[in-house]
Specification:
Strands 5-6-7-3-4-8 form a 6-stranded antiparallel beta sheet. With 306 residues, it is of the alpha+beta class. Helix content is 43%, strand content 17%. The protein has 2 domains: 109 residues, 434 Repressor (Amino-terminal Domain) (Orthogonal Bundle); 178 residues, Beta-Lactamase. It comes from Streptomyces piniterrae.
Length: 306
C-alpha cells in the first residue's frame, strides 16, 4: 500500500485518501496487487537465498522477473502502472512465480484486462424472492457485489444480525462487520468473516473500478476502521463458495452451519447477486435448533426497499 489514490463518489466529486489502493485505477490496482503478492513470497520457497541483508520483504523485483521469465524493466513498468494489457502468457508466468491460487489468478486477470465492467443493477425478481420463501427450513439471503443484503427469507433474517429487520435502513454486511460492535458477538470467528468481506470487496473493486458507491464504501470503512485498513492493505482476494461457519443466536445459542453460495444469473449479463444458503447436518443439535427457529420465524421474508 503506497501513495495516494483518488476516490470518486456517487455525486461526481473526488476525495484523496492516503493509502487506499485497488479502487478506480486498474493499472494502479494491478501494481499494488503484484507488490503485495511479491512481498508474501519467501525467497527460500522458490530456491533463493533468504539470508543476509535484504531491504525488502519477500522477493525483489528482479528476482520475480527472473522467475517469471520477463525483463526487469517490463515488470517494473507493470508495478508502476506504466505497462498495459500484459499477455496471457505473462500473467500465467507471474501467477506461477507468485504461487497464486485460483481466486488470485482470476483477480490478476481482471485487473490486467482492458475491459471495465459497469456495476450491475442488482434487482431482486419476484421469482428469486419466491425461491427464497420456499426454502422455509433453510436460512437464505442474497447479497450484491457491495455486500448489501438485498433479499432474505424468514429464517435468513434470523441469522443476519438484524440486517433483515424491517426498520433497518442500512443492510451492508461489511459495514455491519466493521462498524457494529454486535457483529463480534454474532460471529465468534469474526476475524475470518472480516477477512472474507474485505477480500470480496477487493474482488468487486477490481471488476467494477468505476462503481462510485463501492469506492465510497471502501473509503468510509477505511476512515472509520483501523482493522479494515489493515486487512485491505494485505491485498488479499476472496471468492468463498462453500464452507462452515459458526454463528451465535440470542435464543438458539452457538450454531455450526454449512453454507453454499450460488451466483444468480441474468440475461444478457450478470446481476452481481449471490444467494447464501445455510444448512445443518440432519439430526444434529444444530438442525434441531434451526427447525425451532424456522417455526418462530415463519411469516417474515423480505426485499430491501432502500
Amino acid at each position: 500500500m503506497d501513495g495516494v489514490d483518488q476516490i470518486k463518489h456517487t455525486d461526481g466529486t473526488a476525495q484523496r485518501i492516503d493509502g487506499i489502493d485497488g479502487i478506480g485505477d486498474t493499472r494502479r490496482a494491478l501494481g499494488g496487487f503484484l507488490r503485495a503478492r511479491r512481498g508474501r513470497v519467501a525467497p527460500e520457497r522458490v530456491g533463493l537465498a533468504g539470508g543476509g541483508r535484504r531491504r525488502v520483504r519477500g522477493l525483489r523485483r528482479e528476482e520475480l522477473a527472473q522467475l517469471a521469465g520477463i525483463s526487469v524493466d517490463y515488470y517494473v513498468r507493470l508495478e508502476q502502472g506504466r505497462a498495459t494489457q500484459p499477455s496471457r502468457e505473462v500473467l500465467d508466468a507471474l501467477a506461477g512465480a507468485l504461487g497464486l491460487d485460483a481466486a488470485e489468478r482470476r483477480h490478476l486477470a481482471t485487473l490486467a484486462g482492458a475491459h471495465r465492467d459497469p456495476a450491475p443493477e442488482a434487482r431482486v425478481s419476484p421469482l428469486l424472492q419466491r425461491v427464497l420463501d420456499t426454502m422455509a427450513e433453510l436460512p437464505a439471503f442474497v447479497t450484491n457485489h457491495r455486500l448489501d443484503v438485498v433479499a432474505w427469507n424468514s429464517l435468513g433474517a434470523e441469522l443476519t444480525g438484524g440486517l433483515g429487520d424491517p426498520g433497518r435502513r442500512d443492510r451492508n454486511n461489511a459495514r455491519y462487520l466493521f462498524l457494529d460492535p454486535a457483529a463480534r458477538l454474532v460471529h465468534p470467528e469474526w476475524e475470518d468473516r472480516a477477512a472474507e468481506a474485505v477480500g470480496q470487496l477487493r474482488v468487486a473493486a477490481g471488476r467494477y473500478p468505476d462503481d462510485g458507491e463501492l469506492a465510497a464504501l471502501v473509503t468510509e470503512l477505511s476512515q472509520h476502521s483501523a482493522e479494515f485498513r489493515s486487512i485491505w492493505a494485505t491485498g488479499e482476494v476472496v471468492m468463498c463458495a462453500a464452507g462452515r461457519k459458526r454463528l451465535r443466536h440470542p435464543d438458539a445459542g452457538l450454531l455450526t452451519l454449512d453454507f453454499e453460495t450460488l451466483h444468480v444469473p441474468a440475461a444478457p449479463g450478470e446481476t452481481g447477486l449471490v444467494m447464501h444458503v445455510f444448512s445443518a447436518e440432519e439430526g444434529s443439535p444444530d438442525a434441531i435448533a434451526l427447525a425451532r427457529l424456522a417455526v418462530r420465524a415463519a411469516g417474515g421474508p423480505g426485499i430491501a426497499t432502500t
